[in-house]
Amino acid sequence: MEHQHSFRKIFLVPIGRHSLLYGLLLVLSGIFILPVFWMFSTSLHDLPGVFAQPFRWIPDKLQWENYLRAVTLLPFHTYLINTVVITGAAMVATVLSCSLVAYGFARLRFRGRDLLFILCLATMMLPGQVTMIPLYVMFAKVGWVDTFWPLIVPSLFGSPFYVFLLRQFFLRIPKELDEAALLDGGNRLRVYWSVILPLSRPALATVLIFTFIGTWNDFLGPLIYINSPEKATLTLALNLMKAQIVGTGTTEWNVLMAGSLLVMLPNVVVFFLAQKQFIRGISVGGLKR
After folding, report:
1. Which CATH architecture has domain 69-285?
2. Is a pLDDT exceeding 60 seen at residue 288?
3. At what angle do helices 65-72 and 253-273 cross, to 10 degrees?
4. What is the reported pTM?
């Protein structure tokens, strides 16, 4: 009887819990994947098949030419270059600015440091809609409207969430490494560049992924500041595919879904390539020292 109780406790109970957990994860995964699968299915239909009732998830003839039309309907390569330039610059600026501020909060001792850190975190409660108009007025006065600068320069001032994430990670790095570098003749900037950053790759990868996804998919920022079609980003290009801009007389939803999948694809690729570093950076960065 005692052996049966031990067997049930060791094997059956964990199996039951894991089955319930994996079943729940499977259901949630299906809910999130279903819209993506619908987009993929729609991108392979012809236009009448998009609105056919009932909707056929797998059409009789796969319209792969929709993807070719999506990249030739508009100067897709121009919008891709614009997006890559803005995203790349924002990633570099965000990592440098946030890591420098986080290093100061984690390693430097000065009066009012904790209060200043609390004020930094408090800015996360300020919605972006509050500063939208003042920022636009400021950028308009310096002549930056219809340029890439309003989409890049704010990254130089960091993000409180990324500062918090990096600070928590930096606190887990032993201070003895800093002291050893200082004894060898290095200064604080040298410690930051040669000691802290190389040991913080998971946290830096997390910040890079978040920044890439946020900037690559940003629609509101380019919509506000970009006026010239040749300076548009990919998200604006999807909006330009509508009938009133292209002039076809109707919105080609199948082509629009093909373009949306192409724009979304880099997000998936980047995440899968750096998922280990991303998960480690999130899990470790949120722990206390």
Report:
1. Orthogonal Bundle (1.10)
2. no
3. 90
4. 0.84
